């Protein structure tokens, strides 16, 4: 019979062997993607096209169990500290180009295509983490509302939650006329139709609440570009009323930039908590 000290040594050895074995299996399960190779902060990035649309996948050195991944909506590579932290934990990072589409049906179609490709052909987890930075909030929430059972959690950073606020500029923010014109074109709407539209993220939270999708927002309280009061604050209030789980990290005195957190640990912890 083992005494206490021997049992402790045996347990530690068993955990070490088990952990090491998982890492060996993970290393062997790295996926080969077609496309051109490039470097992403020391990790392998593959650039390819699906139906003529630019896509990118960054691969970890060792793949975590279940092939988890984070899906960056826009501004790929900007403030990459979260992605780097997750890559070190065995996550993949994915991206497909939806620039100029503002979360419209065409953007959702492109996301559907990449999701189908990664999950069906490469065994990616069926419930990715969604990351929406600034205008990326539109596609993240619109795709999630259409596919609530295919989302593990959402991290949104200074997100646009109502296109009337930005790029429309119909509230306290300046908006962007050029981007607003693009947005109207992407949705095939007149301005009057857009003002009456009830399909923005702030309007379409019930599917996410019913699917118990946890949300994390990081916002600068002095954001004048995407005002918190017109976006995150409304979404937070409505999501809580629906019984949804949402956490908001406020950055006092900070504007729209810089995005993310210098130390992404709170964001990483939120994601890992909901594995």
Automatic annotation (TrEMBL):
Q: Tell me the ranges covered by the Peptidase S9 prolyl oligopeptidase catalytic domain, including all copies.
A: 126-257
What the entry lists under Pfam families is as follows: Peptidase_S9 (PF00326)
Domain of life, per UniProt, equals: Bacteria
Question: Is this entry keyworded Signal?
Answer: no
Biological process (GO) annotations?
proteolysis
UniProtKB keywords: Hydrolase
Q: Which GO terms describe its molecular function?
A: serine-type peptidase activity
**Would the keyword Cell division turn up in this protein's UniProt record?**
no
Q: Which InterPro entries match?
A: AB_hydrolase_fold, Peptidase_S9_cat
Q: Write the protein's name.
A: Alpha/beta hydrolase family protein
The species this protein was found in: Calycomorphotria hydatis
């Amino acid at each position: 019979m083992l005494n206490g000290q021997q049992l402790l040594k045996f347990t530690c050895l068993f955990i070490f062997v088990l952990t090491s074995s998982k890492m060996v299996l993970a290393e062997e399960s790295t996926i080969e993607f077609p496309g051109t190779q490039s470097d992403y902060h020391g990790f392998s990035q593959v650039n390819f096209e699906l139906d003529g649309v630019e896509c990118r996948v960054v691969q970890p050195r060792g793949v975590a169990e279940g092939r988890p991944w984070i899906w960056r909506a826009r501004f790929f590579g900007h403030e990459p500290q979260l992605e780097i932290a997750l890559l070190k934990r065995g996550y993949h990072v994915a991206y497909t180009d939806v620039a100029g589409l503002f979360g419209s049906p065409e953007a959702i179609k492109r996301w559907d295509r990449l999701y189908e490709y990664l999950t069906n052909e490469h065994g990616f987890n069926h419930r990715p983490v969604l990351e929406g930075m600034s205008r990326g909030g539109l596609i993240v929430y619109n795709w999630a509302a259409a596919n609530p059972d295919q989302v593990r959690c959402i991290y949104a950073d200074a997100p646009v939650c109502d296109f009337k606020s930005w790029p429309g500029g119909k509230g306290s923010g300046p908006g962007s006329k050029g981007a607003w014109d693009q947005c109207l074109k992407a949705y095939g709407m007149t301005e009057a139709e857009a003002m009456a539209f009830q399909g923005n993220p702030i309007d379409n939270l019930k599917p996410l609440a019913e699917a118990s999708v946890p949300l994390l927002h990081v916002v600068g309280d002095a954001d004048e570009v995407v005002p918190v009061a017109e976006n995150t604050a409304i979404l937070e209030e409505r999501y809580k009323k629906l019984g949804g789980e949402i956490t908001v990290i406020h950055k006092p005195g900070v504007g729209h930039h810089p995005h993310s957190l210098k130390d992404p640990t709170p964001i990483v912890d939120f994601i890992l908590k909901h594995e």
